[in-house]
Amino acid sequence: PRNLVRVIEDGIGEQKFSGFEHMQPMPGFAGKLSPAQLTDLINYLRQGWGGQSAELAVSDVQKLQAEAPSIEHKAH
């Protein structure tokens, strides 16, 4: 879940592949989602797309955020 927290908060830059294919950048959402909203989103993605349990608590996500602060929070 740590990587998912980082991707949601920091976003992903544009990805270029061979040929003409590329993936548009995804903006980060650091500071735009409450801890509860972020936890709900992570649990939804883990369960709906990752086939994993949706059992993370808000405190679990806050701990992950504290261990690896977002780029936005590192800048301040």
TrEMBL record:
Signal peptide: none
Transmembrane segments: none
Single annotated GO MF: electron transfer activity
Gene3D superfamilies associated with the record: Cytochrome c-like domain
Name of the protein in its database record: Cytochrome c domain-containing protein
Organism per entry: Pseudomonas syringae pv. avii
